[in-house]
């Protein structure tokens, strides 16, 4: 394997046990410099990255501790301001702009995680920001109400305890489709279910699903892990996106 593939294959999340060791300002700068190298639509980088140094703020806002955190937000404000400065107009393009901007933002976020890993720094992506009150989070970081939306937080640090194994991934049927989309048939579904059941594959969130009385891991997943629709949360997100101008 070359160095790039080694970095990609060694990437894994650290769940809540980062050590007290701090990331140096130089490494942090290397990570932020690298993340903006990601591809971006129309060369406009429709995102903002908030760098958070304060451990308590990281814990308070993202529910997980770490040395540093990066909050990746889709953001058209800089682009709109520059347009106005030049007496030009800019169309944020509603939901289409939101999709494109989100793609820019997430590519930058994953590039940050990979750059960090290449420096020996581990990470955890969290969408805890959407489980909490998004308006409060926006206020905590002075995010603009219009044309800005926090998509994902990336907590960075050094692990306190090395994870015992790498989490598995599906990489065949149902994930990679050759030439045309392939609807999984019964054989594919049986294979998928047994892949999740195989303790050697480390696919799931828990290992003791059998002790909990489930026939398959995925029975536990669908019944216990996946939350029922939270209409209140859904309305809040719609309302924030509407206020931001991404949807009508
Ligand atoms: C959008 C997104 C949100 C996530 N949110 C959380 C989270 O809130 N808490 C957590 O412990 N892990 C979170 N993760 C990490 C996943 O649990 C982790 O990537 C997955 O279990 C695979 O493990 P690995 O990254 O170690 O390979 C998140 C990952 C993504 C991409």
Automatic annotation (TrEMBL):
GO terms for molecular function: oxidoreductase activity. It comes from the Bacteria. Keywords: Flavoprotein, FMN, Oxidoreductase. InterPro entries: Flavin_OxRdtase_Frp, Nitroreductase-like. Signal peptide: none annotated. The keyword Oxidoreductase applies. PANTHER family: OXYGEN-INSENSITIVE NADPH NITROREDUCTASE (PTHR43425). This is Nitroreductase. It comes from Lucifera butyrica. The lineage of its organism: Bacteria, Bacillati, Bacillota, Negativicutes, Veillonellales.
């Amino acid at each position: 394997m070359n160095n790039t593939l080694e970095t990609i294959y060694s990437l894994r999340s650290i769940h809540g046990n980062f050590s007290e060791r701090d990331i140096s300002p130089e490494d942090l700068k290397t990570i932020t410099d690298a993340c903006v190298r990601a591809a971006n639509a129309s060369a406009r980088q429709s995102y903002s990255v908030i760098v958070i140094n304060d451990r308590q703020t990281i814990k308070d806002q993202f529910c997980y501790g770490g040395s540093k955190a990066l909050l990746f937000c889709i953001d058209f404000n800089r682009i709109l301001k520059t347009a106005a400065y030049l007496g030009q107009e800019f169309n944020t393009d509603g939901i289409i702009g939101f999709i494109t901007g989100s793609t820019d933002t997430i590519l930058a976020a994953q590039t940050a995680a990979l750059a960090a890993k290449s420096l020996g720094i581990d990470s955890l992506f969290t969408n805890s920001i959407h489980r909490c009150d998004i308006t409060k989070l926006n206020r905590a970081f002075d995010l603009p109400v219009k044309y800005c939306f926090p998509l994902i937080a990336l907590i960075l640090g050094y692990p306190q305890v090395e994870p015992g194994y790498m989490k598995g991934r599906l990489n065949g049927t149902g994930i990679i489709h050759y030439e045309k989309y392939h609807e999984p048939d019964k054989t594919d579904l049986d294979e998928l279910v047994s892949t999740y059941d195989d303790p050697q594959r480390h696919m799931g969130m828990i290992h003791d699903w059998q002790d909990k009385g489930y026939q398959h891991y995925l029975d536990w997943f669908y019944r216990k892990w996946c939350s029922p629709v939270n209409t209140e949360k859904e309305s809040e997100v719609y309302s924030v996106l509407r206020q931001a101008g991404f949807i009508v």
